[in-house]
Write a structure and sequence with these properties.
The chain is α/β, with parallel strands linked by helices. Helices cover 40% and strands 15% of the residues. It binds alpha-D-glucopyranose (GLC) (2 copies).
């Protein structure tokens, strides 16, 4: 992998000058190579040249930072730019129109009209045609952003829910075809829904043709991965690595007999069939950039960059969140600016909050999952206290104003308690002990627990684990329905609506894990399935039951109570511009159970309160004196008013006041 040839340092060469010289040398060569294509689209070529000149100095600096030590740097640079030009020339005209629209309105995703949904195509609708037939439902729900989880060709049997990709250019046959995906993207776009898909760029499946070529001994492809003939290097790396899927294999490497002469150790951060790519090799960057642009040209508007933390490896470090992992994404981002300007990135970094934010920048990932808010919402439900949550929103919610959080309560993955131990210590909470408590609580093993969750990747060496379960089961609905009664059912539904209320109003793009909107419970049938039984995340990945969806307007059904409640919250979000943007100010409510914040956007403000306890709470009138509220309007109609009196807030109630 890394080689130590000495090379001119970044500071000792004049990058601006060299970038200009390189561009002057490159462009005629690219033009010659693509002359036939250019002749068919001279205007497109001119547009490309303009964008390239604008972004080339940035791309050159990043690419030089990553690969400037290679004797064949220029070869790879030329190869990259040729690929970018080819992709742009292949970009459909309607997407070029979209590019222009997005460039003139780059903050479109901060609107209060935005609402995200995420699902698996096969589980939700069978296949891509089935997905199309659900567009009326997406419109009904109000979605403007739809994340379809990996739908690409993947090994049969175990494939990590599609996160082991065997071809980025082929849809998994039972799900459909690339043409159908393209057509779905167009139909979604025509009703204002942006298609989001994953770019699983940290690893491929061991059946990807790159991996197959490596297995056949092709040296060019052996260099696509990190493969070692013996344990020397793996041992040296593992001294500093965290185990991600310890249930499946210890450490980060897997031995394959059919590699090299006598077998080889392959870097496999996740499962053994997910081979980490070697980004120290510029060919890997170039090929992956082409795969990304291929997807963008099918109409994908947002790329979810999977497992961003793990892409760059360096001996002696934990190989997570390294500076070059950031440079890599910035380079991909610049590639997108040049050849598919409408494309945005969403980062999936489920790591320490200090690290999560480092991926968020207009020139890196414009969007990011907010795993901290997610984890702390569940923490507040368990503890019935909002101290950690308030602290996090006060100190860690602000990001670059040109970016946005993607706020969620559940997705297809486990819940990891990724809050900062240092933050917890400030409040006198011991992070390690507290995580143990949360794991006990959400597995339903702690007195007073309402949750029915399962452990995921329990690590006997560290005592650590993460939690699986659907939103409804974790919020108490399963236990209430099976063991308790009506009063507990009511509380569970309130919990579901409460945490959704927060993600719908806090600022950024709210994301609903489809199924949660009708209160879907855990599905334990995965335990009888050989490919799934070792992975408890399948408990919250059930096949959609459309009979249950049919009850969503029946106000006496569970489905209806959750759905109609959520629909009200969605309407509230969409009616008020105060919920646009990402500016949030925490209100010290002087009540440990009640979260309070103000959202302001344009001429409007909203005051939001959320009671995380099962008892009524009071917010003192003096708390509100600091908020210059005139002409208050009350939203969910509880008889509360803000005029100089205390506010009563019901158990697990979510209250919003709009002020102009
Ligand atoms: C991401 C996915 C997760 C998968 C992992 C490996 O974190 O969300 O489901 O297991 O990447 O690809
Ligand atoms: C990835 C996976 C998640 C896992 C995490 C470990 O982000 O999505 O399941 O918990 O890696 O850090």
């Amino acid at each position: 992998m890394a080689n130590d040839v000495s090379f001119p340092s970044l500071n000792s060469i004049d990058l601006a000058r060299e970038s200009l010289r390189s561009l002057q040398r490159l462009l005629p060569r690219v033009e010659l190579a693509l002359s036939a294509l250019i002749a068919l689209d001279t205007q497109g070529w001119q547009e490309f040249c303009i964008r390239l000149s604008k972004y080339f100095p940035i791309l050159f600096r990043l690419y030089f930072n990553l690969y400037g030590n290679r004797y064949d740097f220029f070869f790879h640079l030329e190869d990259l730019i040729t690929g970018l030009a080819r992709s742009w020339l292949a970009r459909p005209l309607d997407l070029r129109v979209l590019d222009k629209a997005r460039e003139s309105n780059p903050l479109w995703f901060q609107s209060n009209q935005m609402l995200g949904g995420v699902c698996y195509v096969d589980l939700f609708a069978g296949n891509l045609e089935g997905m199309k037939s659900r567009i009326p439902y997406f419109k009904e729900l109000g979605l403007t952003y739809l994340h379809l989880m990996p739908l690409f060709k993947t090994p049969e049997g175990e494939n990590d829910g599609g996160y082991a990709v065997s071809s980025y250019r082929e849809v998994n046959p039972p799900i459909g075809t690339m043409e159908q995906l393209e057509s779905l993207a167009r139909d979604l776009r025509s009703v204002g829904i942006s298609l989001v898909v994953d770019l699983v760029f940290n690893h491929t499946s061991d059946e990807h043709h790159w991996a197959e070529r490596a297995k056949s001994g092709d040296e060019d492809y052996l260099d696509f991965y990190a493969i070692f003939p013996d344990r020397q290097m793996p041992d040296a790396y593992e001294r500093n690595l965290r185990e991600i899927f310890p249930d499946e294999h210890p450490g980060a490497f897997t031995f394959f007999q059919n590699l090299l002469k006598e077998g080889g150790w392959v870097w496999t951060t996740f499962h053994s069939y997910q081979w980490d790519l070697n980004y120290a090799n510029p060919a890997v960057f170039n090929r992956m950039a082409e795969e990304m642009l291929f997807l963008a040209n099918r109409g994908v508007e947002v790329i979810r960059l999977d497992a961003v933390a793990f892409t760059w490896k360096q001996l002696g470090t934990n190989c997570e969140n390294l500076p070059k992992a950031h440079i890599l994404i910035q380079a991909f981002n610049t590639v997108a600016r040049i050849s598919s300007p409408a494309l945005l990135f969403k980062s999936e970094a489920i790591v320490h909050p200090d690290e999560v934010v480092k991926y968020i920048a207009p020139d890196e990932c414009q969007l990011s999952y907010n795993p901290l808010l997610m984890a702390l919402l569940w923490n507040s439900l368990a503890t019935r206290k909002v101290r950690l949550l308030s602290q996090a929103l006060a100190s860690r919610f602000r990001i670059d104003p040109a970016c946005a959080w993607v706020n969620y309560v559940r997705v297809h993955d486990d819940i990891g308690w990724t809050f900062s131990d240092e933050d917890a210590a400030v409040l006198g909470v011991n992070g390690y002990e507290h995580r143990r408590f949360l794991n006990e609580f959400y597995r339903g093993r702690f007195p007073g627990s309402f949750a029915r969750g399962l452990a995921f990747q329990e690590n006997p060496k560290t005592g650590d684990c993460r939690i699986s379960g659907t939103c409804a089961s974790l919020a108490g609905l399963e236990k209430a329905l099976t063991e308790e009664g009506l009063a507990e059912v009511e509380l569970a539904i309130r919990r579901i609506l409460l945490i959704h209320g927060v993600i719908l109003t806090a600022g950024g793009v709210p994301l609903i894990y489809l199924g949660d909107e009708i209160g879907t419970l855990n599905d334990y049938s995965y335990q009888g399935h050989p490919a799934y039984k070792h992975d408890s995340r399948w408990v919250h990945r059930p096949k959609t039951n459309w009979d249950r969806y049919a009850k969503r307007y029946a106000s006496n059904s569970i489905e209806g109570r959750v759905f109609l409640g959520l629909q009200k919250l969605i309407e509230l979000r969409k009616q008020h511009d105060a919920f646009s943007g990402g500016v949030l100010e925490i209100i010290p409510t002087e009540n440990d159970h009640v979260l309070g914040f103000v959202r302001t956007h344009g001429a409007e403000s909203a005051l939001v309160f959320a009671n995380f306890s099962e008892t009524p709470q009071t917010i003192a009138s003096r708390v509100l004196e600091n908020y210059h509220l005139e002409e208050e309007t009350m939203v969910p109609g509880t008889g509360n008013s803000l005029h100089g009196q205390n506010i009563q807030i019901n158990p697990l109630e979510f209250l919003v006041f709009i002020t102009k």
